[in-house]
Design brief:
D-amino Acid Aminotransferase, Chain A, domain 1; eight-stranded antiparallel sheet
């Protein structure tokens, strides 16, 4: 059987192991295309990253059969650019930009759905930019960010000004990278006038959070799962992603219907996606938070544990022009979760369980994988890719169970066995 050479932007060991377990993966040859550190270095312009990627592809043993990626910006925007250059299947760049650019996305959503929250464009370089009708509290975000970085909550005008000042100081590199890509497509007048460094103010949403995952192929939009996103009590940072969703079936159907309508409106095709919502199940209401033109690699193990195959399967099959359909409830467990062990103040890790102890824990608990993110001696604020605007991640715990009680029990056992100790920073 002929090999298929699949180049993966930001390929890492964890996801490589997941990709190699996909059904029919024997003829697949996975090649890393730049590292995650290279791709998410905000100082490197997107054109320079594309040039580096092209140099790697030019040295490859064979022409690529697919170029894919599961990370956020700039990977999500590089995939359509590289696929177009090499004549490969991939999403349209303009469709991806409509998803990625928060203001453009809101304008498009408003054309096909009623469940759009209050929002307003804000120029961080202008004085007195607070809209008159602003419904505090709000969230302030650059029109492009990733991993919840620089997503800041403001309860009043003072906090709004402070958040805007921080974004003004820290978001320049992201804006520059976005500008590199915006220059490649014809922009609507409103988007061109906004510029790449604008911010979006949005009303604060409440309720249960859920993410709808799916794909579009040949203009047909398919939803394959809904995942709950459960925050720490009283916090905005997530405690766990849990699959399948515990939302009422009728609300899940509503989310699926509006997701299909929105994805079709955006023209996103030959692509996976995940769309995030806030839901009020008791009222049967929901609001759309964000559209991502990629599936969530954080959910891969959850689909594998419950349905039998990781969602990476859809990404690979779409790129190769094959059937991306996932099985349904063919996994070993009825419920699965990715837990985030976090700390909400900075500090230095002084102790945690070693590799041998973690291996023993995984052997004792069926359906458990533990991935520590920081080692002893690490200052939390200095660890890359492990914190959002309000918290620091210590470990990821992937747990499959037969019911929610077992899921929580396994989580508690893992936290105890990991034995993290963190010393406060003066």
């Amino acid at each position: 059987m002929a090999s298929s050479h699949i180049h993966v932007l930001g390929l890492d060991d964890k996801n490589l192991a997941t990709l190699r377990k996909l059904p029919g993966a024997d003829p697949y040859r996975f090649h890393g295309l730049l590292t995650r550190a290279e791709l998410q270095d905000a100082e490197t312009p997107v054109p320079a990253l594309l040039e580096r990627a092209e140099r790697v592809l030019a040295r490859a043993e064979a022409e690529p059969d697919a170029i894919v990626g599961y990370w956020d910006f700039p990977v999500s925007l590089m995939v359509p650019l590289l696929c177009a250059r090499h004549g490969l299947r991939g999403p349209d760049l303009e469709a991806v930009l409509k998803c990625e650019h928060k203001y453009w996305s809101r304008l498009e959503q408003r054309e096909v759905m009623d469940e759009v929250p209050w929002f307003a464009l804000v120029d961080p370089d202008e004085e007195n930019t607070v809209p008159d009708d602003i419904p505090f509290p709000v969230w302030l975000k650059p029109v492009k960010s990733y991993a919840s970085q620089l997503a800041l909550r403001a309860a009043d005008r003072k906090e709004f000004d402070a958040a805007l000042a921080r974004i003004r100081d820290e978001a320049g590199a992201i804006g520059d990278r976005l500008a590199d890509v915006l220059d490649l497509v014809p922009l609507p007048e409103q988007i061109e006038a906004a510029g790449p460094r604008a911010c979006l103010a949005e009303e604060e949403l409440s309720g249960a959070q859920a993410t709808v995952e799916g794909y579009s192929q040949g203009g047909r939009v398919t939803v394959y799962g809904v995942v709950d996103s459960v925050p720490y009590p009283g916090k905005s940072s997530f405690l766990r992603y849990q699959y399948p969703s515990s939302l009422p079936a009728h609300l899940v159907r509503q989310l699926e219907d509006v997701t299909k309508r929105v994805i079709s409106r955006f023209g996103l095709d030959d692509a996976t996606f995940c769309v995030e919502y806030f839901c009020l199940p008791e009222k049967g209401r929901f609001s759309l938070l964000e559209i991502n033109p990629r599936h969530s690699q954080s959910h891969a193990e959850l689909f594998e544990l419950v349905d039998g195959i990781a969602n990476h399967h859809c990404m690979i099959r779409l790129a190769l022009g094959e059937n991306p359909q996932l099985p349904f409830r063919q996994g070993r467990f009825e419920v699965a979760a990715k837990w985030f062990l976090r700390r909400f103040t900075d500090g230095t890790v002084t102790a945690r369980a070693g590799d041998a102890e973690i291996a023993e824990l995984e052997a004792d608990l069926d359906g458990v994988r533990v991935r520590p993110l920081v080692d002893a001696g690490t200052r939390l604020s200095e660890a890359p890719h492990t914190h959002d605007s309000y918290s620091y991640e210590l470990a990821h715990l992937y747990i499959g169970a037969h019911d929610e009680q077992e899921l929580r029990r396994k989580y508690d056992q893992c936290v105890s066995a990991l034995g993290f100790h963190v010393e406060e920073v003066p």
